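Q: C-alpha cells for this one, please.
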Amino acid sequence: MRSLAGTWVLPNCSKVSIFNGNLSSSRFGSDTQNCVVFRSSAFVAAAASVSGSSAQYSGSEGLLGVQTKKKSKGIAGIDQDELVEDPKLLADPDSCFCEFSGVEIHHKVCEAQLEVHDESEGVSSEVKSVGLPMILLHGFGASVFSGNRVMKPLAEAVGSKVLAFDRPAFGLTSRGNSVRELSGNGESKPVNPYSMAFSVLATLYFIDFLAAEKAIIVGHSAGSLVAVESYFEAPERVAALILVAPAIFAPIITQKVVKGSQPGTNDQTEGNHGIGERDGGYAQLFVQEILVCSSTLYFCDNAVKEFLSVRMAINKFGITAVRNAWYDSKKVTDEDISGYTKPLRMKGWDEALVEYTAAMLTDTSSESKPPLAKRLRHIKCPVLIVTGDNDRIVPSWNAERLSKAIPGSFFEVIKHCGHLPHEEKVDEFLSVVKKFLQSTFDDSPQERLQVIV
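A: Here is the predicted structure, written as C-alpha cells:
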C-alpha cells in the first residue's frame, strides 16, 4: 500500500479512494503506516466525544475476543447482521435527499410558519426582523437528528427556512467514493467526499439550494470548523456565524508591547498552546491520544482487525459518549439514543469512519493557507459563540478564548449545560440566539448581548 498521501484501499471492499489525484492498486499488509490510520479511526468516534476516555479501553483482549464469536451481538444495540444499503429505508417522514457531486445527501428543511396574533399586532416582530435562511452543521458522530429540537423555532426566529444536512460518513448521507468536481478553469479534480473541502462545498451548495444570496451558518462542535472554513471560502455568502461548543483550537492571545506605543494600542499575537493545528480542530489532539492508547494494534497484519476495532470502539463508547455529552445524563432519553445510533443500521458505516479519519489525517489543503489562529481575526461577519459551563468535551474556557480571537464576537455561557446546548437547554439556547439575531439584524431597542473586546 502506498503512503497516506497516495492511495487508500479499503479491505473487503471494491472501491478505491483517491487522494491528491493518485490512483493505484496495492495490497494491505503489515505496513505500520497503514495500521496507524486504521487504528486511529478505531477510536476517533469515542475519543472525540468522551474527552480522553480512551484510557478506558481494555486493550487487545476484547478486540481479539470479538473475532471468536460466531454471531454478532450488535453494535450499540444495533444488529449488524441486518444492515440496509438504501438509506431511504431509514428516513423520517420529513427527510429529503439530493445529489451533490455524486453523493446522495440526506437533509431536512423547516420553514417558518407566520404567526398572526391579531389585526393590530400583525406578524410577530421576530419573524420580520431577519428574513435570512439558516444552515445547521452537526458535530462528529451526529446527524440532522441533533437539530430536531430547534429547527422549527429557529425557522420562526429568522422568518425563513432552516436546513440541516448529514455530512458524508454521518447520518443517512450515502457512503461514497471520491468524486470529481469542476475547478474554476474548467478542469476537473478529485474531491474526497469525506474531506473538509467537500463539506465546505456542500454547505455553499445548500445556500444556492435555498435560493439565497447568503445564509446564517450554525456549526456545532466539529461542524463549527466547517462553518468557519465556509466563511473563508465565500465570505460574501455568510451573513453570520453561530458556533456552538466549537471544537476549534482557540489561539492564546498575548499582548506584545510595542516600544513607544500609546496605552491600548499594543499588538496582539496568537499562539496555539503548542498543539499542531493543521485542521484547526480538536480532532488533531484526539488523534494524538489515539496513536498512544491503541499501540496494541500497531503491528497488525490483518486489516479485518481494524474494522472490528472500529465497531468495538463504537460499541464500547458510543452510547456512553452521548450520555457524557449532557450535563445531566439522566435526561437522555431512549429516543435520543435511537436517533444517534440509527446510522449504524446503514451498510458501510464503519468503512466511512475509516475514510473520514484518513481524509482528516491526509488533508494538506490548509498548508497553503495562513494558520487558522491568524485567520480568525479576519472574520468580518457577526459571530455568536455559545457554550455550556459543564462541557466535558470542549471546555468552556476554550470557547471563551476563541471569542477573544474573533474581534467583535458575542459570547454566551449556558449554565448547567454540557456539550449539546441546543439539545439539553433548548429554551436557553433559543433565547441567546434570538438576542443575537436582534442585536445583529434588528434596529429596534431590545435586550442585547455584550460584544467581546
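A few notes: The two ends are 51 Å apart (CA to CA). The longest strand covers residues 103-111.
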